[in-house]
């Protein structure tokens, strides 16, 4: 074989050897880099998942905290609203009671309760028909409610001598108030009177065991239709 051909072949073989070594090295490097890339990609994906999970948990915790705060605020608002409603209701009831009480009043302002309604004894033909307010002679007697005087005069204003001087006033709710044993009468039948207007002075006339005002609430102007006057006044908001 000529020397030139041998040299050419040797050179080609050397070139192929180096080329194969480079290719092998490249493949090896690619494999190494590929493995590292896959590992990095897996690690990156796991880290991202953890971050996302942490973010979701943080948002859930924040939402739960906000929901708890909202529930607490709603409960406080409801409690406050209930308290306001209760206070408003109490104020309305108090105002209504005050208004009701203002429309009715006691017949005398300073007194001691003596003989009560329905009490039995020799002083009365059957049972006591009213409430006695023990007061000195000459104590101011006021109309317990506005109305029209239907009876006024001696002999119980027609109801009998046991009452002495007496007055009967008709009110707008179809009840009647009666005042007896008076020492002086300041009104006359048919006269309009207002709540709290002075209509007489207390006394000791008629069948009386001592100075006092005999007071009745009736369903008609006449004797025999009396109801418990203290219970009636209390139902109108008065403390008797």
Could you explain how this protein is built, in words?
The chain is an alpha+beta fold. It folds into 2 domains: 1-103; 112-235, Glucose Permease (Domain IIA) (Distorted Sandwich). The protein has 2 helices and 10 strands; from the N terminus they run H-E-E-E-E-E-E-E-E-E-E-H. The chain has helices spanning 3-103, 229-235; strands at 112-113, 131-134, 140-142, 147-153, 165-171, 176-185, 192-193, 198-202, 213-218, 226-227. Strands 1, 2, 3, 4, 5, 6, 7, 8, 9 and 10 form a 10-stranded antiparallel beta sheet that branches. Strand 5 and strand 6 (176-185) form a beta hairpin.
Give a short synopsis of this structure.
With 240 residues, the chain is an alpha+beta fold.
General shape? rod-shaped
Structural class of the secondary structure composition?
A: alpha+beta
Number of strands: 10
Overall pLDDT confidence: 82
Enter the CATH topology name of the largest domain: Glucose Permease (Domain IIA)
Q: What's the domain count?
A: 2
Rg over alpha carbons: 54 Å
Q: Uncertain spans, ≥5 residues at pLDDT below 50?
A: 26-33
For the biggest sheet, the summary is: 10 strands, antiparallel
At the first level of CATH, the class of the largest domain is Mainly Beta
Judging by the overall fold, what is the CATH architecture of the largest domain? Distorted Sandwich
Helix and strand element order: HEEEEEEEEEEH
CATH homologous superfamily designation of the largest domain: Glucose Permease (Domain IIA)
Instruction: Report strand %.
Output: 15-25%
Portion of residues within helices: 40-55%
Per DSSP, the total helix count is 2
């Amino acid at each position: 074989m000529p020397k030139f051909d041998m040299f050419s072949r040797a050179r080609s073989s050397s070139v192929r050897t180096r080329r194969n070594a480079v290719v092998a090295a490249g493949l090896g490097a690619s494999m190494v880099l590929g493995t590292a890339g896959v590992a990095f990609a897996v690690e990156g994906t796991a880290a991202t998942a953890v971050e996302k999970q942490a973010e979701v948990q943080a948002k859930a915790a924040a939402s739960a905290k906000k929901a708890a705060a909202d529930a607490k605020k709603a409960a406080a608002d409801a409690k406050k609203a209930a308290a306001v409603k209760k206070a408003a209701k109490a104020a309305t009831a108090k105002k209504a009671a005050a208004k009701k009480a203002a429309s009715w009043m006691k017949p005398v302002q300073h007194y001691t309760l003596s003989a009560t309604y329905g009490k039995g004894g020799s002083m009365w033909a059957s049972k006591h028909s009213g409430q006695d307010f023990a007061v000195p002679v000459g104590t101011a007697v006021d109309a317990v409610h506005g109305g029209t005087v239907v009876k006024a005069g001696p002999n119980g204003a027609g109801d009998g001598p046991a009452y002495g001087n007496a007055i009967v006033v008709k009110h707008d709710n179809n009840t009647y108030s009666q005042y007896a044993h008076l020492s002086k009468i300041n009104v006359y039948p048919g006269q309009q009177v207002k709540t709290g207007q002075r209509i007489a002075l207390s006394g000791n006339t008629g069948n009386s065991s001592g100075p006092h005002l005999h007071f009745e609430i009736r369903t008609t102007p006449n004797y025999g239709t009396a109801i418990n006057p203290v219970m009636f006044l209390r139902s109108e908001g008065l403390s008797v």
